[in-house]
Design goal:
The protein is mostly helical and 67 residues long. The protein has four helices and no strands.
């Protein structure tokens, strides 16, 4: 779920920590062009449908974590 949530940020150009798993994962794709830090608000302003997607994924992540 974390990769699904962060793919939305990656497609918007979010630059992940280069030693982290998200950077390593997304940098293998030609469409990943990191440009800087992207906030949730900036992402929603660019693509309004992402707000519901992010909210749903975070809810599911919380349910899984809590068991």
């Amino acid at each position: 779920l974390g990769y699904a949530r962060n793919e939305m940020f990656a497609r918007a150009g979010h630059k992940f920590n280069e030693s982290g798993s998200y950077y390593k994962h997304f940098s293998q794709y030609s469409w990943y062009k990191p440009t800087g830090s992207i906030t949730t608000d900036a992402l929603v302003a660019k693509w309004s449908s992402t707000k519901g997607n992010i909210t749903t994924i975070k809810f599911l992540e919380k349910l899984i974590k809590e068991g």
